[in-house]
Amino acid sequence: MYKTFAALAAATALTATAAFAQDLPKEVKARQGQFQIMAINLGILGGIAKGAIEYDAATAQAAADSLVGISMVNPAPLWVEGTDEMSIEGTRAKAEIWDNLDDVVAKWNAFGEAAKVMQAAAGEGPEAIGPALGTIGGTCKACHDAYRAPQS
Amino acid sequence: MLRRVLIALVLAALIGAGIGLWVTAPSRVDAARLAGLTGDTTRGQAVFTAAGCASCHHAPGSDDKLVLAGGQAFASDFGTFYAPNISPSQAGLQGWSQADFANAVLRGVSPSGKHYYPAFPYTAYARMTDQDLVDLWAYMQGLPADDTASQAHDVGFPFNIRRSVGGWKFLFFTTEGWVAEAPTPELERGRYLVEALAHCAECHTPRNALGALDTARWMAGAPNPSGRGTIPALTPDQLDWSAQDIAYYLETGFTPEFDSAGGHMVAVVDNFSKLPAGDRAAVAAYVKALSAP
């Protein structure tokens, strides 16, 4: 009897894990993809700033343009209520986001402004990228500090 | 016969209590140590930044991190600690002498002889140089005053008896010695920043049942004391970042994957970004020299 129960429990746990990877709401997948696009383009600019990637004006400009493009995606449809870390698995979005939407939007807009600074700087040469990247990083941290739960 | 046993028992109890009182009594810094040193506010500001004082002592939600009004809550297995007001006001450090400040920071003892809880990382600060301590004191006296009263900690029995902290100190508090070897000047600087000022181990090293750092698993990562999530390990079996990656992270908050720092680490990066590049490189060198647990 106990064995059956244990086997059942194990099976349920497995399905639950499998289910969560599949069932992440499309809005959550979309916003996580959005952050990954940001990270990839920041990685190109950061590689240049660190000296790990050789500077090429067109590549830097395309990365900066992509950041501006991402910043123009309307966040509202991606941040639906009930997709915080207390409600679902697979996200680190704190419930506080939905209590402070004005502040969250202000912080997202600050990223957009910083991305525009990068857009203007990216073609100027590798020296201009580091400081612009610092400004963008500041806007990332400002939001993560308040609205992103620690890694579990 | 019975009378003799009783007398022996009473004596043993008295001796026990005496040892207990002696063991748990606050120890102070020898005041003569600081005589002849003059504080410098510019250097003090760098010590203040490296030691991360403002990160915990600024008011929750406040954008002005130099007003050290206190009030941030720190959850732990032993209760919730509230950072006190340490601004130069009546509610804070007004009236303190340099010796009072030294005893607080280097020994965890208040001006009236009360033990501070080790949520205040004097266990790390104890290794601060005397000159840094004096510079820090000079700088902090010039910060803005704020009159917000400090909140009482919310700590259960037996930890709510301050004297018990004396026993904890007897068991776990050492004022000198280092965990890592530092064979080069850069590693020595890195060790001073990591083990003394920036008190990195407070979060990155796991604790034993009584809340003392488990130095055998130095920087091996730990559960978040808030009860949610974990604090990452910095040891080479877990962290494969290059020294340059680590220094860049401390400067910008960007990981090698260009994810960005979150939680309390945002405040730490904020501090490190204001320090000289050589200090970030020294910390990176220290981290790269750590051994796997």
Short recap of the structure:
The complex is a heterodimer of chains A (152) and B (293). Chain A has helices at 2-23, 26-50, 57-71, 96-99, 101-121, 126-147. Chain A has 152 residues and is mostly helical.
Key words describing this protein structure:
heterodimer; A: 152 residues; Four Helix Bundle (Hemerythrin (Met), subunit A); disordered N terminus; B: mainly alpha; Cytochrome Bc1 Complex, Chain D, domain 2; 2 domains; two-stranded antiparallel ribbon; 5 strands; 42% helix
Topology:
The complex is a heterodimer of chains A (152) and B (293).
Chain A: H1 2-23, H2 26-50, H3 57-71, H4 96-99, H5 101-121, H6 126-147
Helix pairs in contact in A: 2-3, 2-6, 3-5, 5-6
Chain B: H1 2-24, H2 41-51, H3 53-57, E1 73-76, E2 79-82, H4 98-107, H5 122-125, H6 130-140, E3 154-155, H7 162-172, H8 185-197, H9 201-204, E4 222-223, E5 230-231, H10 243-252, H11 265-272, H12 277-288
Helix pairs in contact in B: 1-7, 2-6, 8-12, 10-11, 10-12
